[in-house]
Amino acid sequence: MSNREPYNDVMSAVQSFIIDVACFLTLHEWNGWEYLSQDSCTQVRTCKNCKRKSNSIEHSWNSWKYESDCSCNQTRICNRCSQTESGLPDHVWDMWEYASLDSCFLVRTCHRCGDHAIGKVSHSWGVWEYESPTSCAQVRFCRRCNAREAGETIHKWSQWQSNEENNKQKRICSHCCEAEYKDM
Ligand SMILES: [Zn+2]
Ligand SMILES: [Zn+2]
Ligand SMILES: [Zn+2]
Ligand SMILES: [Zn+2]
Ligand SMILES: [Zn+2]
Question: How close is the Cα of 124 to the center of ligand 3, in Å?
């Protein structure tokens, strides 16, 4: 009997050492989460072995609501702790329309708060045409705002023609008169 007690002491020392090592390696054995108080969203849990505590905040958010009738800002409130949070504005946009008669900028208006948003540019391009009688560069113009866009160069090449003197073939653009050569 008397020589069993030291054995038990050693075993319990070993056990608590193992627990200490486990908790040191953050392998805690947690009890369940409990709220700190009735109107708080902070939850606490305690390790069964080392009694360390850990916290977490878990709100019970209501749905987003507009701040007021003429604002699109949204807020929500927590059921438990009454904390509020602001979200992104949620506008109710009308259709995109041109900013003015001779502008190609599209704008839209929120019919709740009157906010404007400027969107992309939407041109009404005419057909591609030659830049000038002596250039084969293509350009086109917007029928609304007269914006100009440069395109690729498109030559009107003739057939390849042989030139026996220098053993090369030649073709000529009938629009800009540029010449191009290649070996026969
Ligand atoms: Zn622990
Ligand atoms: Zn809360
Ligand atoms: Zn709005
Ligand atoms: Zn335009
Ligand atoms: Zn040309």
Answer: 29
CA of 105 to the centre of ligand 3 (A): 20
Q: Which ligand lies nearest the alpha carbon of 135?
A: 5
Same domain, yes or no, for 74 and 107? Answer: no
- Into how many domains does the chain fold? 5
pTM above 0.70, yes or no: no
Ligand number nearest CA of 16 is 1
State whether 182 and 140 are in the same domain: no
Q: Please tell me the distance between residue 152's alpha carbon and the centre of ligand 5 in angstroms.
A: 11
Structural domain for 143, as ranges: 124-153
What is the structure's pLDDT at 26?
77
How many alpha carbons lie under 13 Å from residue 138 in its C-beta half-sphere? 12
- How far does residue 84's CA lie from ligand 2's centre (Å)? 8
Q: How far is CA 111 from CA 69, 92, 93, 116, in A?
A: 11, 6, 6, 10
Note whether 9 and 52 are same-domain residues.
yes
Q: Average pLDDT of each block of 10 consecutive residues along the chain (184 residues)?
A: 66 80 84 91 92 92 93 95 94 93 93 90 96 96 96 96 85 95 86
Signed CA dihedral, 160, 165, 168, 174: sign only: negative
Amino acid 7: pLDDT? 76
Q: How many whole angstroms from 6 Cα to the centroid of ligand 2?
A: 52
